[in-house]
Write a structure and sequence with these properties.
single chain, 237 residues, mainly beta, Glutamine Phosphoribosylpyrophosphate, subunit 1, domain 1, six-stranded antiparallel beta sheet, five-stranded antiparallel beta sheet, 15% helix, 41% strand
């Protein structure tokens, strides 16, 4: 697969929706994870990311404007031992609970499907980073309706063992704006990772559509030690 520019992938799409980027830093020292949310409605835009233990959760910026919390308030990031789970919905909790009972990432996601938000049927996208004894691998998943038909769920998992330095994969919910919103298609895009955590955070945030972007989470995890640094950027302040 051809290496893509993350900058171009982001700036060229006014509404990728929610997105996950997972890979390895250019110096090979860090596992890299990013998750962003966007919004078109008042309910979707009325959010911020806040730290919650080793992970994060979404929170209403103005509680008075929160109309329906069901698909907008959740924990996108949770940590289970040496595993970091990143998703675009409450399937984070499903993965955490089932993996804590010795089930696999894929087994957990077989109990879930796309979001019940007709007519979009937004895909559920998920990722997991596994760091152990100086080794690192990750996987990504998408659960989507079959060509917009809610009677059928298509399930795809992509696993990356010993990922290469300076490379990541990017998956998001929508191919672009529309009504209904067109679901992501194909494999996660292979994109380059450059710079330190602040460089990477700036690249992602500055290239998301200014009107639609809401919040961004970025984490760099040192592969040798498991220590991590986190950045959170919220449009609402």
């Amino acid at each position: 697969m051809q290496m893509m520019s993350l900058k171009k992938e982001l700036s060229g799409n006014a509404y990728p929706g929610r997105g996950i980027v997972i890979g390895k830093s250019a110096d090979g020292k860090y596992a890299v994870a990013a998750y962003f949310i966007m919004g078109r409605s008042v309910n979707s835009r009325n959010r911020i990311f806040v730290e919650d233990g080793e992970g994060i959760r979404t929170q209403a910026f103005d509680p008075a404007k929160l109309t329906d919390p069901s698909l907008v308030i959740y924990a996108p990031v949770r940590v289970l031992g040496n595993k970091t789970i990143v998703t675009n919905g409450d399937q984070t909790d499903t993965i955490y609970a089932m993996m804590d009972r010795q089930q696999t990432f894929e087994q957990a996601l077989r109990t879930r499907e796309f979001e019940p938000d007709a007519p979009n049927y937004t895909p559920r996208i998920s990722g997991i980073l596994h760091i152990e004894n100086g080794t690192y691998n990750y996987a990504m998943s998408i659960l989507k309706s079959s060509d917009g038909n809610p009677d059928s769920c298509s399930r795809f998992t992509f696993a990356y063992e010993n990922p290469l330095a300076g490379e990541a994969h990017f998956i998001h919910t929508y191919m672009g704006d529309g009504d209904p919103l067109p679901s992501f298609e194909g494999e996660p895009a292979r994109v380059a990772v450059d710079g330190d955590i602040d460089d990477f955070t700036k690249l992602v945030w500055e290239n998301l559509n200014a009107e639609n972007k809401v919040s961004l989470f970025v984490r760099y995890i040192e592969i040798e030690t498991g220590k991590y640094e986190t950045r959170i950027v919220n449009k609402n302040k």
